[in-house]
Amino acid sequence: MGYDDLALSYGNLMLLLGLARIGPSSVVARLGTLLLGIACIGLVVTAIFPTDLEEARSTHTGDIHTMSFLVNVGSTILAVVLLSVSFGSDPRWHTYRRTTLTMAAVVVIAFVLQFLTLHRGAPYGLANRFFVAMLLAWLLTTSIRLRVLARDRASEA
Q1: Burial 46-69 (b: 16+ CB within 10 A, else e)
Q2: Which of 42, 143, 154, 157 lies 20 to 30 angstroms, CA to CA, from 56?
Q3: Does pTM top 0.85 for this prediction?
Q4: What share of the chain is helix, strand, coil (3-state, %, to 5)?
């Protein structure tokens, strides 16, 4: 089982719940939050169904893993972009917008670089690690911003 996928699913779920509670309330933000939820479910599926080895024949389990991986990546990237754009519509998140848009652009560029290295001899592993690092950086900085806003909200009450 992919414990890293389960950990990322749990982290996405916590971010989703925090954003649903004190995140922007625009349609774009809600759509981004929904896409995080889709990624949460997809990451659990990815964890349950292991990938096929490169030399092995394709299996149903491996096919499910691959399909869920593609859904996870697509929904997560779209969530990052939509949420980054939506942060400008909420005064509490406005100061974070420039940072998050820059980081979202880096996430998209990292994904494109990863996609371009999908052929034999290309540094796919390096590109994949860069993409994962940039995605985690976006998730962590957004979580930190959410934590600051939650603390400010609690002190006002």
Answers
A1: bbebebeeeeeeeeeebebbeebb
A2: 42
A3: yes
A4: 80, 0, 20
